[in-house]
Amino acid sequence: MEFLIFLAVIAVVGGGVLWGRKNFKGEIERAKRIRRANRSK
Prior knowledge:
With 41 residues, the chain is mainly alpha-helical. Helix content is 95%, strand content 0%. It is built from one helix and no strands.
């Protein structure tokens, strides 16, 4: 039973990461560019 719960948690986390990447790719890219710009100053 615990194993099934463990698998479900992994599936939810993996799905959440994929969904988040798909929806926030532009935001992540913008944040990376801003961070690089701040570091290079």
